[in-house]
Amino acid sequence: MITLAVSAVLVFAIEFVARGSFVDTLNFFQQPFKPSWTTVALFALLIIGFDALLGRPYNGLLIVAPVALFLAFVGHQKSLYLGDPLYPTDFLYARQIVELMPLLVRERPLAGIGIVVGLVAGISLFVFAWRYWRRRMPALSFWARMSRLAIAIPALAFFVSIMDYATFSWTRDRLQIIPMMWDQKENYASNGFAIAFALNVPMAKVKAPQGYSDKAIDAIAKPEQAAAVLPEEKPDVIIVMSESFWDPTLLPGVKITPDPIQNVRASQSGHVFSPEFGGMTANVEFEALTGFSNAFLPAGSIPYQQYVRAPVPSLATFFKSEGYETKAIHPFGGWFWNRAPVYKAFGFDQFMSEENLPPLAKRGPLASDAALTEEIIREADATEHPFFFFAVSLQSHGPYEPNRYSDTTHKVDAATTPWARDSILTYAEGASDADRGLKRLMDWASKRKRPTVIAFFGDHLPPLGPVYVETGFMKEPVAKRKAPIDEMLVQHETPLVVWSNRTGPARDIGSISPAFLPLHVLETAGISHPYYTGFLGDLHDRFRVVDRNMLLPRQGESVFDWSRQKELDPAIRDFRWLQYDMMFGKRRGAKGFFPETVDKVVANRTRSPLFLRDQAFG
User: Fold this and answer.
1) Among 67, 166, 458, 524, which one is most buried in terms of CB atoms within 10 A?
2) Which coarse location class describes where this protein primarily resides (predicted)?
């Protein structure tokens, strides 16, 4: 009974830390159809199990409590900053968080001090408790330890067995544990932090979608064009994904002079509907390079970290097969978002990162957009063959602390707190630098004889936090995952430019998922491809946005919770099957949709004149 009481107090503390609300925590325990007391029993079993291993009663609390409370604290901070709860896979990129910590501390120094003080106090308390509490607890006998293990291990093993949300469990249903993987915010609110976190563990493995088979892949309509077709004069292609690039003049009641994104505004082709907000850049990048969708992967997953372990077809794979030189450029560490091995799997010849780039001038604490642009131009001028470059900027990474730049060129008028106004100025200055970078790139390309296509877009809205609330742009500091379509578009759209030095900017693209970017880039370049312009082209005739929570058709009303419907739209179903087939399945669709990955001889100047692509793809 004492263990149950201790467990109840601990679970209440975990939920209070994770939710940040005493009332919400109290409601969680008072609701009969929420698994609060199941969680209490689970933690009691954990404490009993650790007691047996450590050999003394209640010593398991010294292990379970610090770990659980730390995870709850991190989860609460993530939800405040990015709007998403904590997932088990987040720890795959823990190094990113550590590396970006100086930026976070610069914006909130008092919070940084508080974290340090809290860590020191927590560690000190843990050491004190371990040394003195452990001494005062009597040692358990051999049989007492065995009896505890006999209770805890089978019960915990059974609990683990029912955590696979993809399989129905009568017991899980009776315990009021209802997986809500399509709505993670509600999943954590309803099931509690600990159980929701556990439910997300199995998402590291992607199961075949219902109906997937060799026959199903063979039945997908093949494009009329069985092979890629390029113009006689192959165009160079540059895609720049600009960190957190967005239009800050959309903030209500805010006037910024001069216009920070005047060049993008003049050449704008449409918008990218980002599947993310404030972060998770790699997920947007995944869609833009592969033409696949995060909508078909488990919520909270990061394909760069979890799923790209072998060659995956991408724009780089295709261009490389046509004799292009393919380079990825990002002025940060190659380990960040696991980019180095991912870019190799995507077919890039070279990844130019912080490790092998020449020193780039900084503006603020990070490599400047101007320096990155000049590096892109330098690399292009030194390349004789047709090339495909993919660049990811860094300068405008958040947070946007006031006075980041000492030489600002803009003025902000806003009825907000001085901190919010100065934060807007910091962001606007960075957005203006990115805008000027695009202008420099277009001016350079305009003077080139070789046809050149440039695509430029923002990966997601910036994490401006309180600025959104103070200006009335949003009711909360983070965007919603499900809301009326007008609200979703405002909170997830970033500017998109697709431009050619022969034909100028593409127009009227509208709002598109990043997965459709390859379609518009290749069409502007005059290139056709069985998948990127064929399959995606047909899909785009039906849908503009394919999001985890929403489908936006070209005509008609948006469809929410589409993945929960008994029957999927045939076009979406085929999209899902084909993506699974190429990422996790037998790649039966490779010959029809990605012929460059099958028996294709590819120019590769970094190793030998030729090598067989099918050796990599199998």
Assistant:
1) 458
2) membrane
Kind of pairing between the strands at 325-329 and 350-352: parallel
Residue entry with tokens 């970017």: 517
Helix (H) or strand (E) holding 352: strand 350-352
Confidence grade of residue 468 (pLDDT, cut at 50, 70, 90): very high
Beta bridge partners of 611: 602
Q: Where are the alpha helices (DSSP H) in 447-569?
A: 466-471, 485-492, 517-525, 536-540
Distance of CA 589 to the CA centre of its chain: 26
Q: What angle do CA 219, 220, 224 make, to 5 degrees?
A: 115
pLDDT in tens, 292-313: 999 999 877 888 877 887 899 9
H or E stretch covering 170: helix 170-174
pLDDT recorded at residue 167: 66
Q: Is the dihedral of CA 588, 590, 592, 595 positive or negative?
A: negative
Q: What is the C-alpha to C-alpha distance for residues 414 and 466, in angstroms, rounded to an integer?
A: 14
CA distance 382 to 380: 5
CB 445 within 8 A of CB 501: yes
The pTM (predicted TM-score) of the whole model is: 0.77
| Token duo for residue 24 | 């919400």
Which of 259, 254, 262 lies closest to 423, judged by CA? 254
**Cis peptide upstream of residue 179 (ω within 30 degrees of 0):** no
510: which strand partners? 270
> What does the alpha-carbon distance between residue 41 and residue 200 come to, in Å, rounded to a whole number?
20
Helix/strand/coil for 347: coil
Give the helix/strand (H/E) hosting 271. Answer: strand 270-273
Contact indicator for 271, 511 with CB cutoff of 8 Å = yes
**Rounded distance between C-alpha atoms, residue 513 and residue 290, angstroms:** 12
- Angle at 319 (CA atoms; ends 315, 323), nearest 5 degrees: 165
The sign of the torsion formed by the CA atoms of 524, 525, 528, 530 equals: negative
Describe the crossing of helices 281-290 and 517-525 by its angle, rounded to 10 degrees. Answer: 40
Residue appearing with tokens 């100025």: 425
Residues 291, 519 contacting (CB under 8 angstroms): yes
Q: 457 forms bridges with which residues in the sheet?
A: 241, 496
In whole angstroms, give the CA distance from residue 613 to residue 320. 10
